Each structure stands twice: as C-alpha cells, then as structure tokens.
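Please review the protein record below. Tell me whether the encoded fold seems credible here:
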Amino acid sequence: MKLSIITIFPNFFDSFKNEALIARGIKKKILSIKIFNLRDWTVDNHKTVDDRPYGGGVGMVMKIEPIFKAVKAVKVKTKSKKTRIILLSAKGKIFNQKKAQQLSKYDNLIFICGRYEGVDERVAKHIADEEISIGEYVLFGGETAAMVIMEAVSRLIFGVIAKEESIENESFSSGSNLEHPQYTRPDVYIMKGKKLKVPSVLLSGDHAKIEGWRKKNSK
C-alpha cells in the first residue's frame, strides 16, 4: 500500500516512518510512505499556501491552487489505479475501525493535511473524495490525524504485524470486542502493602474458561 501525505511540515513524519512496525512494513516493502511538501507547488517567492478568508474572520485559510497542483502531481507519481484522497478536517466524518477496513482496500491513500483556520471549501467539494476527523476536538493541523489513520489502516495490511495480531484485527472488524483486561507476570504484586493478584482463572490453563472470562469482562 502507498501512503502519500501532503503537508507544510514534512519533517513531522520522520520518527513515524522510522520506528516500530511502520518501519518494518516499509523495510519489507509492504508499505510505502511518501511525504510531499505543499510549498513545492506554490507560485510566489514566499511559498504562500494560505490567504485571508472572504467575508472576513480570524486567521488564514489554506488556498485551493497549491493543493490542487500537489494532488494532481502526487497521483501521477504514485501511479496507483485505486486511490482515495482524504482531507483531514475537524468537520469530517469520525474515523472508526469500519472506515479503516474500507481504506485498507485501496492501493494508495493521499492525505491532505490542513492547517491554520481551515481549508478552502472547494478542496473538500471538488478535490478530496472524503473528509475525515479522528474525534470531536480541534488539532493544530491534520498531520497527527493522518498518522492515526495510517497506523490503523497499516495494521490491516497482511504481513505488517504478526499473524496472531492480524486475527485480532479481523475479530475487531467483525464486531467482536477484544478490550478485555490484560495481565502479565508477576501473578502477585505487592504495592503499598496490598497484594494485587492476577485473576485465578487466567492461571488455570483451562482455555474454555479463560475465553469465557475474557468475553464476560470485555468492554
């Protein structure tokens, strides 16, 4: 899968690409993450990507022209038949596991990371295929949201994570809840004079009982 990000802060994604499972997915050539600096498609010496909003108001709005040019160029460079263009926006539809599953079917996802007070509405209506938000709150920009979505989608790509984790992904996507309590060694930990014990059923070795306990205690 190709993941393409259009941003005015290309260095924002350095550690994201170079650490943990994402880095492993890239090394195994299962994932490809390319970062594109929106300012490369500006036309003035100051590399301006924003302007004052029509009708007045506080702050600046990102311009349609460089975004259109950037998306057009990225589509040519990535050469993918099945591409989805996503505008990260506070007013977009809330991201969830079902949406991650849908996005994992594409060959290439292009993320447009907004900044300032917003993005010219014509980008949402005529360039992006959809607007996505990761929650009912406002961030400085779309970069963090893009990383959240990329990580959720990458987990669903075969080979990025271990086989047993892939099974959990499938269960979660089908509606099963996997958020049961988790414990590890030691089975008894003394904290402030109090013994904190692992539930005895988890130490029993009875897999049927353990599975029943997990389902009962899932949230």
About this structure: The radius of gyration is 22 Å. The chain has two domains: 2-165, 179-216. The beta strands are 2-7, 32-37, 50-51, 61-62, 83-94, 108-113, 130-133, 188-191, 194-197. The mean pLDDT is 91.
